[in-house]
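[job 0412] stage=complex_fold ligand=zinc ion status=START
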Amino acid sequence: MSSFDAAGMLVSPKVQHQRYSHIEHGALQRIRAIVVHQTDSGSAQATFNAYAAGGNGAHFLIAKDGRIIQTASIKMRCYHVGRLIKSRCLELKGAACKDAAIAKATALGWAARIKAIDQIERQKAYPDRFPVNSDSIGIELVGRHLDSASYEPLTPAQLNSLQWLLDQLYAHLSRDSGDVFKHPQVSYKNPGEAARAQWQ
Ligand SMILES: [Zn+2]
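[job 0412] stage=complex_fold status=DONE, emitting structure tokens
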């Protein structure tokens, strides 16, 4: 098993360090969950260029050839989840979700509804709600979106590296596969993002 150094960087011959301070936004006090993303870029380099220019990012990037690059410290927060989270109760249970405040929010128009749901959910503790930026880390897999519902497939090398990386994180953070989410499960995204990612 590999380990993290004092700066929150994973020390292993399998992991390159290329830290972008622009995408780190204050201290990350606790890590409860992991969110898996796809970059909507065709190469790791295109994502590095965006990070260097100050875009939002995540803690790890997995290139198409399976290379793992750590782009932010796990002690720092990245804005990878987005501002408005979905209701875990509503997404999992549908009509059987007995949260009265959520039921009220679902009667609102779309823009007001997703804002109200986010506010209700943020008062809950994980795992009653989905992860947020202040209690999760993100893994980006390089891949472009194809249309409004799909992304390009992941390579076998990317899937192998994702599993290896998750195994390191499970051990270090005392988490398991129940704490790993695809980005569109958690917030309002192209449903194809990371749709073809698999892990144990
Ligand atoms: Zn994402």
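The longest strand covers residues 33-38.
[job 0412] exit 0
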